[in-house]
Design a protein that fits this description.
It contains four helices and no strands. It is an all-alpha fold. The protein starts with a helix and ends with a helix.
Length: 103
């Protein structure tokens, strides 16, 4: 029972970190800070989640969701999974590569 509670606590912390990195990314967007910095926030959040949970699966799922969120909310055209700017495509590929290096 103690092991189960410890696991639940790690995943609750991971969910809180995930929510925090999303909110921080939106704050960066409001402050007109470049989108690439949001990718660094997502990368840091995924690293924290992998360390906290000890689960590569949780890290992988989080990294894929973070890439999708970044593409949907922070790249033009907004609220779409299309990408028009070549720089955003390159940023997404490199961030996905770095996120997969974690594993």
């Amino acid at each position: 029972m103690k092991f189960y509670k410890k696991n639940i606590l790690h995943y609750i912390i991971a969910i809180c970190v995930f929510i925090l990195i999303i909110l921080l990314s939106f704050a960066f967007e409001r402050l007109n800070i470049k989108n690439e910095n949001s990718l660094m926030i997502f990368l840091t959040g995924v690293l924290i989640i992998v360390v906290e949970t000890g689960s590569y699966l949780a890290g992988f799922i989080t990294s894929v969701v973070c890439i999708a969120i970044y593409n949907y909310f922070f790249t033009a055209p907004y609220h779409s999974f299309l990408i028009y700017d070549v720089n955003n495509v390159i940023s997404l590929y490199f961030s996905l590569f770095h996120l997969l290096l974690v594993f």
